[in-house]
Amino acid sequence: MNYTHGNLLFKVKQLILLVLYFVGCISFGFSQQLPKGKNLVNDQKIQYLKTKGEFSKITTSKENETVSFLIETIKEPKFIYNCATSIPIEKKSYPKGTVFLLSYDAKTVTASLETGEAKLLWLFKQLPSYKGNIASTQSISSDWQTYYIPFEANRPIAKEDLGIVMQYGFRPQSFLLKNIKFEVFPKGTQLAQLPKTKITYKGMEANAEWRKLANQRIESIRKGNFTVQFTKDGKPVSEKVVKIELKKHLFPFGARMHAEDIVNNTDDYKNFKKAFNSLVLGNDLKIKRWKNKEKRETTLKALEILQKEGFPVKGHVLVWPGFNYLPTSIKNHTENPEKVIQIIENHVKSILEATNEKISHWDVVNEAYTNRDLQKITGSEDILYKAFQIAAQKQPKARRFTNEYGIISKGGIDTQKQQWYYDFIKRIDENTNGLVQGIGIQSHIGSDLTPPERVLEILSFYATLGKQISISEFTMDIQDAEIREQYTRDFMIAAFSHPNVVEFLFWGNTEDGRGKCDIFTKENEIGIMGKAFFSLVHDAWKTKFNSTTSKNGTLVGRGFYGEYEYSFVEDGKVVKGTFEVKPRSKRTILIEL
């Protein structure tokens, strides 16, 4: 080794040591800043983790005082919660805002998914019912890795309700788990202070090929060329600089609203009008709410306002066949199927008659996969088919949709449910002579982010049925601002790029404390999801340009389909007007001033 080379190596070693020193200092400083939590896991009881049923098993082993668990999903159950284990913890009541940290070491042993990873879903329980759960789904690496999942209580938790539950009822798989901790932190600890395993999804990189192709499809299917000719007193308005701006998309971008907010013109409705061009009513057209005459009057008044202000309304829902969503009169007649059929048909007929010409399209049947009480009482799905027939008869102009959840969400891996929904739609068509016109795909997105390419695959699968597709209920559970904004944007790009998708509806508008949808914040500012929405609908997808008319008074342009405003200055005054650009319309738009 010559002197120069040796000296260089010495300097490199010095640099490495210096870097390691600073990293150590930073790490030490960071660890010093971390609040100290109390582990609630019962170390004695956790050694006896068990699972029930035929679908899974847990094998415990111990090495050097460390207990590890081999968790196997032997057969995929109908519902993932059929394979579940509650972690034994010390229970106590906690106030809203308390933060917790779940951590564990895990590695995949065997997997059935294309990614080669096992999956598990953690439920942070706050209430006796499932509604209080905060869910987090995690894919497990093939190498040992420590995972961190912080939770913040969004309500006071009673001692008996606190829980942390592991669900693993996915496709056949096995994974190892050890060093499970569930820590609670002192008052004042912020969620951002705790470590967190970063959530990612395939296709999130800036130069992702799927996004490039999606934007090319958007350019092709959502935009068109147009020619406008301006005349005055029969003569061309030539060499005039005209400002052209899209004011209202033809494509429906909408949100869920409540009739009461519309009637009272609340901030939520005012925010809605700044962002959207269509909507779906949340609870107002459901059978339980409709039975209340006072609330019914509010709903009808809201529909009149929306009609007057030019907002198309999706009706939700004619038949939701589960006891939880039906009046008590149904339960009172479970032994009398004829009476149940009569109650449902009378409701469907009456609400369609009362809302005629006020609804653009209906969710005729909602969530029939998990809600089967009407089918069980009556012995078949005929009661659902009949709803489509009545809808076609009473409101022939209103399009008829089905609606279902868990199709695109959960990573898009539930192929069993996807196939059921596909076959269900075919069964309705076969029994009603093709009365299904649209497929509603709810998109309540948890922490298990479905890659955009998979979203497009699922949409294309349903497109083979030859029907319109609605993204009917988009929400996001992830609160991390960066991923929340980016995934909202990517999901919208994917959906808007698919030719069969005919609307995109958010299940919410102004943030309401549930953390599901924040187009606007409680302070009426643009929220995290709102940043993604406005960056697309009101920026990237909003055509705006200036053009000079030719000698014969024409100008040509290309833009997104919808209603445009033109404006120019004439004799010191601003002249304004509107015109529409529609698909497959090649006629010159004639504007006589």
UniProtKB/TrEMBL annotation:
Domain GH10: 240-539
EC number(s) reported in the record: 3.2.1.8
Matches recorded under InterPro entries: GH, GH10, GH10_dom
Keyword set, alphabetical order: Carbohydrate metabolism, Glycosidase, Hydrolase, Polysaccharide degradation, Signal, Xylan degradation
Family annotation (Pfam families): Glyco_hydro_10
Gene Ontology BP, a term: xylan catabolic process
Single GO molecular function: endo-1,4-beta-xylanase activity
Catalysis performed (reactions): Endohydrolysis of (1->4)-beta-D-xylosidic linkages in xylans
Homology family: Belongs to the glycosyl hydrolase 10 (cellulase F) family.
PANTHER family xrefs: BETA-XYLANASE, GLYCOSYL HYDROLASE
UniProt-recorded name of the protein: endo-1,4-beta-xylanase
